[in-house]
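Wait, can you check?
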Amino acid sequence: MKKGIAKVNTEVRREQIKQATFNILANQGVKGFTISSIAEKVGVSEANLYRHFKNKKEILAYAVESIGEGLQQNLKNIKNSRTTNPVKQLKRLFRLHLEYIEANEGIPHLVFSEELHKGNPDMRNKLLNAINAYAREIELLMKQGQEDGSILKGIDTHAFSFALIGMVQISTIMWLLNNFSSSLALDGMKLWNSFEDCMAVKK
């Protein structure tokens, strides 16, 4: 029993450390991300922190991994919803993606950081693999739409899957440059209608 409790506590603590990581990245950037700042944010000693992660790099890797898990969870949510229309599912997925980033302001600071792109090729590849897996699922939804007649058969589903992700990226960059002064989800969704017009069959 004690072993089970310890495991749950470890998972909870790792989740707290991840959330603290995103919070620090959002408010202080990568330069403010230190073991001491994480420990202070979580409310534990640095020694306690090292019981869960070996170093700062491992914490960042865990944060990157969680981004991919978050995207996959969004996919599960739309697949389990009542809506079976691929266009409506894609619209919902797009909004969930924006809302996920908005709820975790540290994500863009990490994703666009030099720390990720130059300092840690393993983490960069992990994020790339997560995005590619996410894009493949989007493409499958688009192909389903082509089969049921809701999405134009002539479009390149591979290109359009990355175009959808690209809309999230540009919306996020503008949100970041504007210092999170408006709603990412509301601003980002303004791009959807034009995207849908280029993709969906007019009825």
Notes: Residues 56-199 form a domain with the Tetracycline Repressor; domain 2 fold (CATH 1.10.357.10). The chain has one domain: 56-199. The two ends are 59 Å apart (CA to CA).
